Amino acid sequence: MNIIELTKRQDIILEIVKNEGPITGEQIAEKLNLTRATLRPDLAILTMAGYLDARPRVGYFYSGKSGPQLLGDLARKKLVKDFKALPVIIKESSSVYDAVCTLFLEDVGTLYVSNDQGHLAGVVSRKDLLRAMLGKQKIEDIPVNIIMSRMPNIVVCFLEDSIYEVAKKLINNQIDSIPVVREVKAGDRQAYEIIGRVTKTTVTKAFVEIAGDQPV
Ligand code: ADP
User: Fold this and answer.
1) Which ligand 1 atom sits closest to the C-alpha of 125?
2) Distance 122 CA to ligand 1 centre (A)
3) Per the count of CB atoms within 10 A, which of 40, 50, 136, 173 is most buried?
4) Res 1 pLDDT > 50
């Protein structure tokens, strides 16, 4: 189902409901000289896509939502838990050299850094690593925890967050990647266990899925 392009008949149904709703399926069918059965798939599509609302024993009425609003609704329904990728994690004692190798081996742009307890300590991006390589010091001798962005300044997200919220965080913080985390207790402090990764690619995938309505 494509939320932007409706068939001619769906457009006509939408107009009828807009002008005359609430109206039953039976009444719409009569107006169009069609059977209720013929109309059923169209009504199902219009309802699922959010253009129409249906109430038992009342009928169909127009939801009043525009295409962009519906797109927003769909984006808010796509959740991190359904799109997240596996995180690529290195220890904070790893060297910048190790980090660069991992970046290439795992084919990612950002690495998440864990502390001795296995909790999120920081993030290193491509540019963080390039910057470290410009210095005089040998990259085998620089631990990543010297150059990483660190907690508590790491932007994180949770399984139940929507892809829309993630997209906003990526844009507002000008970053490419956000670790998906679960809160855990570490003594009396709050810490994060790293359970996934969402990136600009994740958001693009969700967008393509919304537009084409099939998994990519
Ligand atoms: P790059 O710098 O390689 O283009 P980013 O735009 O993702 O990649 O990173 C920009 C800066 O933000 C880097 O210094 C990086 O460490 C930091 N950063 C990346 N992701 C996060 C995050 N989720 N939370 C906080 N800081 C981050």
Assistant:
1) 3
2) 10
3) 50
4) no
Which residue, by CA, sits nearest to atom 9 of ligand 1?
A: 175
**Alpha carbon distance 9, 43 (integer Å):** 10
pLDDT digits (tens, 9 = 90+) for 133-180: 998 999 999 999 999 999 999 999 999 999 999 999 999 999 999 999
Query: Which residues are bridge partners to 96 per DSSP?
Result: none
Distance 186 CA to ligand 1 centre (A): 25
Three-point CA angle 11, 17, 20, nearest 5°: 135
pTM for this model (two decimals): 0.76
77 Cα: distance to centroid of ligand 1 (angstroms): 26
Give residue 201's Cα distance to chain centre: 10
Q: Is 16 exposed, middle or buried (0-12, 13-18, 19+ CB in 10 A)?
A: middle
| Residue 80, token pair as written in the block | 């991190």
Q: Which numeric CATH code is attached to 8-65? A: 1.10.10.10
CA of 203 to the centre of ligand 1 (A): 17
- Mutation choice for ligand 1 from 80, 130, 175, 200, CB with most ligand atoms inside 8 A: 175
- Domain segments of the chain as ranges: 8-65, 80-211
Q: At what angle do helices 8-20 and 36-48 cross, to 10 degrees?
A: 80
Q: How would CATH label the architecture of 80-211?
A: Roll (3.10)
The set of protein residues with a Cβ atom below 6 angstroms from ligand 1 is 110, 123-128, 149, 153-155, 174-178
pLDDT at 2 over 80: no
